[in-house]
Structure formats: C-alpha cells, structure tokens
Batch of 2 targets.
Target 1
Amino acid sequence: MTARTLASTTILMSGGSRGIGLAIALRAARDGANVAMLAKTDSPHPKLAGTVHTAADAVRAAGGQALAVVGDVRSDEDIARAVEQTVDAFGGIDIVVNNASVIDLSRTRTLNAKSYDLMQDVNVRGTLMLSRAAMPHLVRSDNPHVLSLSPPLNLSPRWLGAHTGYTLSKYGMTIVTLGLAAELAKAGVAANTLWPRTTIATAAIQNLAGGDALMRRSRTPDIYADAAYEVITSPSRELTGQSLIVEDVLESAGVTDLSGYAAVPGTPDADLYPDVFLD
C-alpha cells in the first residue's frame, strides 16, 4: 500500500502528548516529518505522563521537526492559531490526524451531562473544526490525508445500547470523516478512519475499571502507529472514504505476524481483549 515516505511532510494532530497519538507522531518523525501537536498539556498531570512539550522533544529526538501548540481543540481560536503557526513553521499542512478523544463508558442514566458535552465537543466538533480549518492547505498538498481514530459505523444493538453517549461521539467522528471524504473527493483529499480489533495499552485503558488486567491483554500503540503510517503514505486518490481496521491494514501491507505488538510479550492473540464497536 505504501507509495512514499513522510519525509518533509507536515502533520497537524490534535492531542499527541502520549499514547497512540505520540506513537503515530514518532513513526512519522522517523521519516523526517514535521509534526505539529495541538494539546492542552502545558504542564505535567499528576497521574498521566507526558506533555505536549515532552512529546515535541521526542519527535525531534526521533528525527522529525516538531511544533508544540498549547491549546484546546474545542476552541476555534486555538484551532486557528494552531493552523497558522503550523503553516508559518512548515509552509503548509499535508495531513490532519484527529487523535484527541474523550471516553466515558457510563450508561445513559448515569452519564454526567458535562461529560456528554465534553465528548461531543472534543470527539465530534473538534474533528470537524480542525479538519475544516486545515482544508485550504490540504487542497494544495501533493498527497493530503485526514485520518480520524474512530470506529466503523456498527448499528448493532450491542453497541448502540452499551454506552450511548460515547458511541454517539465516536460514530460522530466517523460520520464527519466519511462526509469529508465525499465532500473533498474531487480535490483529491483522502479522509479515512482507523480502529483496532483489540484494546491498546494506553492511559485511557489503564484508567477504566479493571484497567490493569486490560493493559496486560492489550497491544502496544505501535500497532496503531504502523497502520496509520500505511494509510497516510498511500496515494490519497486511491484510498479514501474507508473505515479501516488496524490489523487489516497491516495484513494488506504484508504484516501477518502481530505477536511483537503484544503489551506483554508472548501473549497469544486469542487472549487479547477485543476493543469495542467490532463484532
């Protein structure tokens, strides 16, 4: 699938201070990419490692150029500033990665209204507004991509009824992305989503009930990063409007042995914990 590298290309990412977003940024940095990250993490969190500044340092250490933009993807002003600073620093934007996301798996009766609003604002509105703000620059890129870390639309009652607020927000990310694919097809801007079959060992998983056990049965963020790399290096006019699965993308790229991605080496695939939204 891979047609080119990310050398000298510019990625604008929401979040990225840690976890999957940082793994994607570091994979791009190994090619010499420019990575701009819009994140709120100006100072360390007492329970979460990493800030947007330490992430930028890691990108530079891996061989890329980095721009740390302290801001909130819920803020139109911060988004506009991130786009402006990215273009000023690197000359354009080739790729948008909608990585920032909020998770609350509460059932509807117990879901806090503020948590619901936060998920909608970050997951759905943030995806739309960041992608929209980058559009004038994406259309001038040689190989433009929008990649959202969200699942395929699965209307099974199993998922519709599991955690309706969170499901709505993640499906909203996907609808935004597929809509952009249709809207920008003639301009050659690809827009795809990407989602894993198993849980990924991140702070979001660690902080769930039973997080320690889940972490041991998860894969590392590197599997997501390697699949994302395959997607955003593909020709934009040939791969767009798809809800892609991490493992399928890697299989298409010739990677069939995924054992090296287990968070606990030697964990059989059958013992890994399946992620949500996939039957």
Target 2
Amino acid sequence: MTTAKPVPSTEPDAGAAARPASQLGALELRGISRAYGAHTALHPLDLTIRGGEFVALLGPSGCGKTTALNSLAGLLPLTAGEIVLDGRRIDTLPPEKRGFGMVFQNYALFPHLTVRANVAFGLKMRGVGKAETTRRVDAVLALVHLGEQAHKHPGQLSGGQQQRVAIARAIVMEPPLVLMDEPLSNLDAALRLEMRSEIRRIHQEFGLTTLYVTHDQEEALSLADRLVVLHEGRVSQIGTPADLYEHPANPHVAAFMGYRNLLPLTVTSADAAGAAATGRGLTVRGTAVGDGQLREGGPVTVAIRPEDLRIAGADEPALGEAVAEIVEYHGRVLHVEAVTREGDRIHLKSSGTVRPGDALSVAVDAERALFFPEPAPSTVAATEPAGEVPS
C-alpha cells in the first residue's frame, strides 16, 4: 500500500504555512548531455533543483530544453553525466522507476475513460487500494476544481479543463518531481493566462517541485522561481526572473527578456562615466554589461527595450531618426515599429499620437541601453550559489 501524504487544504484561506512539504530534498543534474551521432543536442548541464522550487527551462525550438526534460524523465538515455535524487543515482533506472509526474503538451488523456477514471488510472496500475484511490482522486479533483466534471469524458471538456485533468493525473501519484512540457501551447490566449495562475496555485498548494519547459518568456517569468535559458544546447544564464530581466548576461538572454532592439554598433568611447557607440546612422550612450571588455573601435551589440526607447523631446539629444511604419494600439500606449535611414527596424512605445509615415527622433537614457561586447561571452552567467551551474 502506498503511504499517503497529507492532503493540502483547498480552502481559500489556506496560508503558506499550511502548504505540505515537498517530497523532494534536492535533484542534481551533474553534467548531463545528449548527443545524436556527431550532433550534440544538449551540452553538459549542471543544475540543482531544490524541493518546492518551480524551475523553467526557457529557449527557442531546438535549444535543447525538451531534450533535457526527456533525459531527466528517462525517455532519452544520457550520453554523459548522471542524475542524483536525494543522494541516490537514478539515471540508470527506467522511466517508471523514477516516479516523476509528466504533463504533456497534447494532454494524452484516454478518450473512453471519464475524468475520474483518467486520474485514477496510474493508481490502479500500481495496485493502490480502492479506498485510498478514491480519497486521493477526490482530493486532487477538488484542488484542480474539477469535482463536478468527474463523470464526464475528455471530449466533453474545454481545453483548459482537459489540461487540469492531465495535471491531476500527474500529481495524484504524489511524485517527487512534476515535469511539464509546454503544457499551455495548445490553449488560446485567455486560457493560457488562466491556466498560468492555476498551475502556480496547484504547485504551491500541493507542495510540488516542478520543472517546466517553455519558449514563452512571459510565461516563464510569471511562473518560475528560477529560469534556465538555453541556446543551441548550452546554458546561457541561470537565475531568478528578476535577475535575468534586469541583468541579462548576453544578447541572446536579453532578446528573450524583452530587449527587442539589438543594434550592432561600434564603440567610440568607454570609460568610468559610461560608453558610447555609433553606426548605421545611430549614436547611443549606454552601460557596459557582460564579461567582455569594451574597447574603442570594437564591435558591440546595444540592447534596448521598446518601452525604454521614446520619441525625443525638442531639446533632447536623439539616438537617431526613423520613420514609423507599423503602429499597433495596445491600450494606453502605442507600439511603434519604425525604420531607420539605414533600413534597420526599431521598436518603441508611445503614449502620444503616432501615425504610419511620421518622421521620429528617438532617444534612450544611458542606463537603459545595455552594451554587450562581441563576440558574446560563451561562459555561463549564473546568479545562484557556486557549484550549481556549469563551469
């Protein structure tokens, strides 16, 4: 008989102190990698996930994030490295022996079974007693707000409800770790927002430890305690959402954190007071970041968020000139895509009136323009304790 863990309160006033403790102490990925012949899909990855954490693997298609997840789940064998769960090596075990919960992008529900039967299926396969199965299924259905839909089949549910069934099926097994592979990608925009809140609530109320794969930076920022940004199979940066948002390590991370303007320029000056760069009809003063050194005449990528690039005032030094081409209404502000004299596209936001074809002078504060020397550093910039990121 499987030992039951305390059922979390589902009352609205259940506080953080009432949350159940995570079943996981620490999961260590020690130099895990995966290669397909001469192609390395995942270069050595070192990461420690602590009990109760919500960690997101973030990056574009082909960056290695799903490979990392499937390697951890046991669906792909490792080329090198090891996986250690609370001091016990588990990468030699088959997937079913690792005990992880998995939530897939396509839900993978049994269409001929009811919601209750779908959620109970894994417990039945493990031989859990009927009374214990009923208790645990009732508890998780209440947690995911599906008690009234327990008798229905998946085809009678909305996309968001089906995703909650998939989550319930994973957590009813009381796994030490839940793996989620882009679980919201098949939902519309409104449901994605709703389910983001639901996933975070369920994570907290059930005391889960979660590893979440996504290509959506907004999703990752809103959900995760820590982010692992991957690029071409390598870790670009590890840190909290605030760390990565405010202090991206390189242009790739900056792009994922909302710096849509990435300008290839040439350094004209660099000293303690700041730096300046020019090129392609633009002149920018900014702040040096990253591990590289700025040098006069050297190449630099200047990263600027659209909300930090503005229409210059009458007496304000301008970064350059551009012509508005696309103007999108975003409520209180307009999102403007403009083209510079050299043909480069820049993005800015404006609370004033802008129309396609308008000539614009644009400006940015120096502390909001980040200078990344090129080539971008290949080392990992991590904002966590030593020993938990690759060297």
